[in-house]
Fold this sequence. Notes:
The chain has helices at about 30-35, 40-45, 80-90, 110-115, 180-195, 235-245, 260-265, 290-305, 320-325, 330-340, 370, 420, 430-440, and strands at about 10-15, 45-50, 95-100, 130, 155, 160-165, 200, 255, 275-280, 310-315, 345-350, 450, 460-465, 470-475, 480, 490, 500, 505-510. It is α/β, with parallel strands linked by helices. Strands 1-2-3-7-8-9-10-11 form an eight-stranded parallel barrel. A five-stranded antiparallel β-sheet has the order 12-13-14-18-16. A hairpin with a 6-residue loop joins β12 and β13 (about 460-465). The two termini are about 20 Å apart. The mean pLDDT is about 95.
Amino acid sequence: MTGPWWREAVTYEIYLRSYVDGTGDGLGDLPGVRSRLDHPRGLGVDAVWLTPFYPSPDHDCGYDVLDHRAVDARFGTLVDVDGLIVEAHAVGLRVVVDLVLNHVSAGHPWFRAARAAGPGSAERLRFHVRSGRGPAGERPPTNWPSIFGGPAWSPFGDGEWYLHLFDAQQPDLRHDHPEVAADAEATLRFWLDRGVGGVRFDAAGSLVKEDGYPDLPDGWRPGEAAPYSDRDGVHAIYRRWARVLAEYPGDRLGVAETWGGPEVIAPYLRPDELGQAFAMDPLFWPLEAATWRAGVDALLAATLRHGRLPTWVHGSHDVRRAATRWGADGSRAVLLLMLALPGSVYLYAGDELGLPEVDLPDDAIRDPVFRRSGGVDRGRDGARVPVPWTDGSPPHGFAAPGVAPWLPQPTGWGGYAVDRQAVDPTSTLALTRAALRLRTGRWRGRPAQLCWLDGPDEVLAFQRGSDGPVCLANLGDAPVDWRRYGERVLLASVSLADGWLPPCATAWLC
Ligand code: NOJ
């Protein structure tokens, strides 16, 4: 293997509150993760990414942080973090932590001070604060929408408004304020000093807003360029933080939570910026060969320009479960496709079990998206239901018997349990383990250049370089004769009874 450890790493996203409850309160926590490190280890991933465990009033499931350099007692202690890092290293895993530096909780001392100090005060300079429009300042300063629905500005009630790209409980910070910049760097160093292998920068593209806060043009739609996303100025911040990362030994990773297309992502990957930037577009690609072929080529070309590789995201706590988005077979097919492509891969805990999206009752939903959209968008909790470890009865090993998980597990959840799939060679868990094992010897470290092989339009077939294994994905309606592409099947996302690869399936051949 050449290059830093993360160049073609597979990282397992542990959505902390849904992984294992080690303390009996129905919420997953750090002791829980420590008790089940054998799982990611057995999968064969390189790193685990832990979602936030910092003190938080939980208006956005921990992404509203009160103190970035502390651990919420509900999740454990700093001693647990240190212990987890040591234990993870002992089994060959790195730990990646989630840094939420774009905003703080409205309960953070800085924001409480800003609210109290009143209009025009120095305390408000740490936030994006503007006078409202209209004679009495009764209207928001711009027409910017919150990503969670509703306006992105809320009034202080004294004529001034503050910006929150997410929930009103998550005011955005001004990174051009020296104290904000110094505090962010202190946070970064705090976790690097403790030995984390990398950091994920939450809402990476949002840290800088355009001067003058221009309105969005009429007809603007989410996903289009906006004065608060991916501005040139954010890159100066990442260059600074990259220098901090580089001061530490061991190729510490900075990964940007980006949501743009190839040309938006690429600048984050310049040699003096970050090692990884999420490619989220593929999450929403339909299973059509032309879309994937063109999309993969564009991402590869844009990242290779800077000597980097794409970071494929198979699923996360922010989108619908892969098995529901692409269907159960589709999710398995995409997994094998992504694992064969050049680059790193993020695998969301539970997707290796094929967990489907859960339709939760209204009164169980915690995601602020549900409330802020007036119930139109049911939010992201359906992808966050606690993991089933044992078939048995609820809470299926997630917590001690009799403890109610923070989100209810649906009937039949035990059918997806780890203990059940572990003994079933056709399970999604068995496939994931086999794929990760094979990937190391067969795909990892091979040339980044894709050689697309000829075949029917609805088939994706490639090698990396001009030799090596073939990845064959059948995204059409008819079975494909895999013997055209190789002599032997190394692994397939479905059982292959004969020489035919059925629709919605991927095979690795040699
Ligand atoms: C991205 C996180 O993944 C998401 O869960 C959160 O709501 C927003 N950033 C705001 O921090």
